[in-house]
Write a structure and sequence with these properties.
The chain has 3 helices and 5 strands. It is an alpha+beta fold. The chain has 2 domains: 37 residues, no CATH class; 81 residues, Copper binding periplasmic protein CusF (OB fold (Dihydrolipoamide Acetyltransferase, E2P), Beta Barrel). The chain has a 5-stranded mixed β-barrel. The longest helix has 20 residues.
Length: 130
């Protein structure tokens, strides 16, 4: 007829552990917001920007470290000079690899976008005839 004190205590603990779903909704929104901002923060400003491709010779660059570039200048076959800021790792295009392209006169192909009036390098690859 009466529940024992142990079973009442168990039911009380069960209710404390498993709260109703609507208690967890604000927590889920906070976690979703934090996850969204941390995973895509640097790409959030590049919405609706089209990439432009250009090829030419690297004329100058500044290395940030042994593996990263800070900025890069490129001269096209028409003689136009493009200056690019680099905000990401370029993979195999380390400062020494880019220096090799400069010394041997090897062409590179660059994809970039413009933000706040500046050219930002998105990707770089060896030039190939298509």
């Amino acid at each position: 007829m009466f529940a024992s004190s142990a079973s009442v205590k168990y039911i009380y603990m069960y209710r404390q552990m498993y709260k109703p779903f609507f208690y967890n909704v604000p927590l889920m929104w906070v976690l979703l917001l934090i996850g969204n901002l941390s995973c895509g923060g640097e790409h959030m400003n590049i919405i609706d920007v089209s990439l432009v491709e250009v090829s030419g010779l690297v004329t100058e660059f500044k290395a940030r470290s042994l593996t990263e570039i800070d900025y890069l200048s490129l001269q096209t076959a028409e003689g136009q000079i493009y200056n690019f800021k680099v905000g990401n790792n370029l993979g195999k295009f380390t400062p020494s690899h880019i220096r090799q392209h400069m010394v041997h006169g090897e062409l590179v192909e660059i994809s970039y976008f413009q933000r706040d009036g500046e050219n930002w390098l998105r990707s770089m690859q060896d030039f190939t005839l298509r």
